User: Fold this.
Amino acid sequence: MNDDTIRTAAMLAIGDELLSGRTKDKNIGHLADVLQIAGIDLREVRIVADDEVAIIEAVNTLRNRYDYVFTSGGIGPTHDDITADSMSKAFGVDCIHDPAAMTLLSEMYARRGMEFTEARKRMARMPQGARHIDNPVSTAPGFVVENVFVMAGVPQVFVAMLDNVVATLPAGAQVIARSIPCPFGEGDIGTPLGAIQKAHDNTSIGSYPQFKGDRFFTEIVVRGRDVAAIDAAEADIKAMIETLSRSSEGVGERV
Amino acid sequence: MNDDTIRTAAMLAIGDELLSGRTKDKNIGHLADVLQIAGIDLREVRIVADDEVAIIEAVNTLRNRYDYVFTSGGIGPTHDDITADSMSKAFGVDCIHDPAAMTLLSEMYARRGMEFTEARKRMARMPQGARHIDNPVSTAPGFVVENVFVMAGVPQVFVAMLDNVVATLPAGAQVIARSIPCPFGEGDIGTPLGAIQKAHDNTSIGSYPQFKGDRFFTEIVVRGRDVAAIDAAEADIKAMIETLSRSSEGVGERV
Assistant:
């Protein structure tokens, strides 16, 4: 399925370690890349601690506001993994040892001759009625409740689970992003670029300063879902750069 | 000043490019590191688009909830830099071309023989009454309104501005984090570690799986503000590892 509906999404990254600086998040940027390709608009990201009140408040706000919510973290076997309990409370359902997940995990540990400890059984817990997200890396599944996709925080596992999730989502009209390198700083292009944005309001034009040596250059990015509109905006931007180049004292904006 | 008050903080990272995947944020992790050292608890992070409604809602929520809010992004010279306007609306004050910032910037451009364009003048805009945050990299200041510190998104500038900000904040009691490498996976340690956390409730004990080859190891981190409490928890964790080592089938938890 591929249609023109614009679908929106949020991410909720869960974990004390992201807020203490101990772990530098890698999942947000990966999700952003994957959703861009899938044509789903990532509109907001939140990072919260392993704190039930914070998790419940964030997920309830985000799931009512966006089409999809993707979460990372807090579904392991230890005491600070409270995402399954928090999601159950957010949806007002019991948090259970899911029978199918218990079977998956008990068989996996039996094959390996390892004890299926109480801690390991925690990884089978999820809100009653949740569907699984397969985990090809380490077996313990993520889960889906309504529009919320609950995945692991370990990047290797998050990536694998997200691949499984994205394959199930209807693809939206893809956002095209066209990048135009610009040899001027934002101070030179700000006013004419603002006028170009106004004239092409079915595109979104961003400019990103790049600091190289002692000068700022700019990357201009035109985003949209309509190729003709993007072509038209790009043509105006290139004309602007051409005009500036003729009148310029030189390229790059010194800091 | 250094006292035992626990001060809390949030970060608000602003920018379409963070949500499209085009830019991978580096400022969140840096802020987390700096606040950890300063003894300030980072409790929440949000990333929102260059969207006035989203920025205003987020900053108003966060500034009422935490002692400090640190923002990044959206204070450059182009049309999509709307942070100064959004902050002014959030605080219900006019967004003005700050006279001192106009002087700083006009002198800088005059020294360099560059035109002080309308776009460049945008970088002097801030909520009326805001204090400056010095920008040693590229002159255009960030600003402070009440408990909200508005900084640039370009990492080199964010880092420099944050250094200036942190020097002005009262240092809290520093959080000490002690890391204990553990040769077992979370499935082995989950239950005993949960009991240790319960017995040491003036510390926060986290466990972080590390995936190496085909096995999970764990890093256990004890955090707190009281050295004696951390020592006591650490001793129990080391005893747990010792006990597990004697009874174990081998180290590392296979995936």
